[in-house]
Write a structure and sequence with these properties.
- It is built from eight helices and two strands.
- The chain has a two-stranded antiparallel sheet with strand order 1-2.
- Helices cover 70% and strands 2% of the residues.
- The chain folds into two domains: 121 residues; 37 residues.
- Helix 4 packs parallel to helix 7, helix 5 runs antiparallel to helix 6 and helix 5 packs antiparallel against helix 7.
Length: 179
């Protein structure tokens, strides 16, 4: 006859796996609670104000001024809110929209000066924080806006890639007709 499984004893080095998992989940949700994420998005996008104006900017706008790598560093910092949304169970469509916000910020931010002004105005981290909290509070509300945003973004990307091809074909046809 097989012996019964051992029962946990007091003084174990590690608690059973189920308790360890729950403790880790509690720690993660504490790190990614609304208060901390709101602070992160505020520091990245609205920490400082241009004196005499209502224009606010944060570390993302400052770091973006570093040529070449600044926008990438800002984008990596922005991924904290995206990761927190994933940990907290934000729907994938919302995570995709949040990733698009970060991508737009990083790509446009690479344009010298004008891109940095766009990053300051776009405030991807504040947008993502608001998206995350909205979808956690009301998971089914306004989902169609996310799809429309992503479809328009996808259409824009397709147009950007097709425009040079169409232009090249038109030039080649014009050259062929005028030979």
């Amino acid at each position: 006859m097989p012996s019964p499984p051992p029962t946990p004893r007091a003084g174990e080095v590690l608690p059973p796996a189920s308790r360890r998992g729950k403790k880790l989940l509690r720690q993660q949700t504490h790190w990614f609670d609304d208060e901390n994420l709101d602070l992160i998005s505020h520091v990245l996008d609205e920490w400082l104000r241009v004196p005499g104006t209502s224009i606010r900017f944060g570390l993302d706008g400052i770091v973006g001024l570093i040529p070449g790598i600044g926008d990438v560093i800002g984008g990596l910092a922005s991924l904290v809110i995206l990761f927190a949304g994933w940990v907290r169970g934000v729907p994938y469509i919302t995570l995709l929209r949040m990733a698009a916000n970060v991508g737009i910020s990083v790509l446009v931010g690479t344009i010298p000066f004008a891109g940095d002004m766009f990053v300051i105005a776009w405030k991807a981290n504040r947008r993502n924080y608001k998206l995350m909290t909205r979808h956690l509070a009301q998971p089914q509300r306004h989902k169609w806006k996310d799809w429309v945003f992503l479809l328009c973004l996808g259409g824009g990307v397709v147009a950007i890639f097709l425009a040079p091809i169409i232009l090249l074909i038109a030039i080649l046809e014009w050259l062929h007709l005028h030979q």
